[in-house]
């Protein structure tokens, strides 16, 4: 693996779409006649292979529902024993919690991308500011 | 196409948005991939060579924990190469591989010192803030030059 490792690439494709299922994306990848490996995961798929092929396939998958399919590179390939749960005695792999946290934001991000494309104006959001010390003091004193 | 440094350095959303709007994200995943593809750095679970903390000395003094220097050996060159940056602070998930507070402070400090366009945001907590977040990032990325100016 090491001799041509720099040409290889792994990408995580996270699907948060109402019209595209992770299995649809997997089928799209299987249908592409390229020498790549895929692994279906809870969030979508992981695609590994030569850089050019992976980028092309990922772009094809992304075009299924552009604003609701998100992609990032991954350092380790699927099943790499330094990360794989099978060889680490179970438990979430490093990086899983961050991904899970971000996945919760994806519906909002996807919707915002749709709106941005349509040129829809947004209202200034009401920021939930931090509680000031004086306000906290006021609250604590009011309860006494 | 500008090289855009992102913070948090392993963010899916930021990495995706930067790529989506036609730029290159400078993200941790890419550096890790480079690191683990190097022959000789494949003894699990060690991905850092003894040389890395020495490279980190360029960014952090010898008194700081070796972990900071080890991380800076990866993050530092990305900051040096950055042509723009997006910093999202108050991320609820600054743990795991993002969990070193000292490295995070140093990373933000060093990128702010660079004379490059920087967009600073806070992590969105509501739907409205999420919309605002995407709009600001999209506008920022569109304002960056598509092609790198020749020196």
Features:
heterodimer, A: 144 residues, four-stranded antiparallel β-sheet, flat, B: 151 residues, alpha/beta, 13% strand, globular
SSE string of chain B: EHEHHHEHEH
Mean pLDDT of chain A: 85
Major sheet: arrangement of strands of chain B: 2-1-3-4
Spatial gap, N to C terminus of chain A? 68 Å
Molecular shape of chain B? globular
Would you mind describing this structure in some detail?
Chain A has 144 residues and is an alpha+beta fold. Helices cover 40% and strands 17% of the residues of chain A. Chain A contains 6 helices and 4 strands, in the order E-H-E-E-H-E-H-H-H-H. Chain A has helices spanning 22-31, 51-62, 85-88, 96-103, 106-118, 133-143; strands at 8-15, 37-40, 44-50, 69-74. Chain B has 151 residues and is of the alpha/beta class. Chain B has helices at 12-20, 28-37, 52-56, 66-81, 101-113, 127-143; strands at residues 3-7, 24-26, 84-89, 118-122. The longest helix of chain B is centred in the C-terminal third of the chain and has 17 residues, at 127-143. Chain B is globular, with a radius of gyration of 16 Å. At the A-B interface, strand 1, strand 4, helix 4 and helix 5 of A face helix 1, helix 2 and helix 6 of B.
How is the secondary structure organized here?
The complex is a heterodimer of chains A (144) and B (151).
Chain A: E1 8-15, H1 22-31, E2 37-40, E3 44-50, H2 51-62, E4 69-74, H3 85-88, H4 96-103, H5 106-118, H6 133-143
Antiparallel strand pairs in A: 1-3, 1-4, 2-3
Chain B: E1 3-7, H1 12-20, E2 24-26, H2 28-37, H3 52-56, H4 66-81, E3 84-89, H5 101-113, E4 118-122, H6 127-143
Parallel strand pairs in B: 1-2, 1-3, 3-4
């Amino acid at each position: 693996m090491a001799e041509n490792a720099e040409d290889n690439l792994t990408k995580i494709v996270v699907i948060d779409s109402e019209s595209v299922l992770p299995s649809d994306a997997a089928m799209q990848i299987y249908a592409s006649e390229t020498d790549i490996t895929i692994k279906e995961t809870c969030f979508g798929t992981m695609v590994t292979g030569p850089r050019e092929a992976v980028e092309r396939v990922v772009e094809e998958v992304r075009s299924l529902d552009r604003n609701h399919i998100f992609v990032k590179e991954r350092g380790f390939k699927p099943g790499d024993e330094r990360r794989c749960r099978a060889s680490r005695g179970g438990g979430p792999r490093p990086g899983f919690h961050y991904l899970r946290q971000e996945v919760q934001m994806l519906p909002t991000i996807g919707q915002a991308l749709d709106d941005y494309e349509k040129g829809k104006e947004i209202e200034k959001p009401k920021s939930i500011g931090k509680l000031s010390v004086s306000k906290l003091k006021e609250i604590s004193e009011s309860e006494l | 196409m500008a090289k855009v440094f992102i913070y948090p350095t392993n963010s899916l959303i930021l990495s995706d948005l930067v790529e989506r709007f036609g730029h290159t994200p400078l993200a941790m995943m890419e550096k890790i991939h480079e690191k683990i593809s190097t022959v000789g750095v494949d003894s699990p679970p060690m991905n850092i060579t003894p040389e890395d903390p020495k490279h980190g000395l360029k960014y952090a003094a010898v008194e700081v924990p070796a972990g900071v220097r080890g991380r800076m050996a990866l993050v530092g060159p990305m900051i040096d190469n950055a042509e723009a940056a997006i910093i999202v602070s108050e991320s609820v998930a600054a743990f795991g591989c993002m969990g070193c507070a000292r490295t995070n402070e140093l990373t933000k400090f060093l990128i702010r010192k660079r004379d490059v366009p920087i967009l600073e945001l806070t992590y969105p907590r509501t739907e409205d803030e999420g919309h605002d977040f995407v709009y600001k990032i999209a506008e920022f990325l569109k304002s960056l030059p598509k092609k790198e100016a020749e020196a």
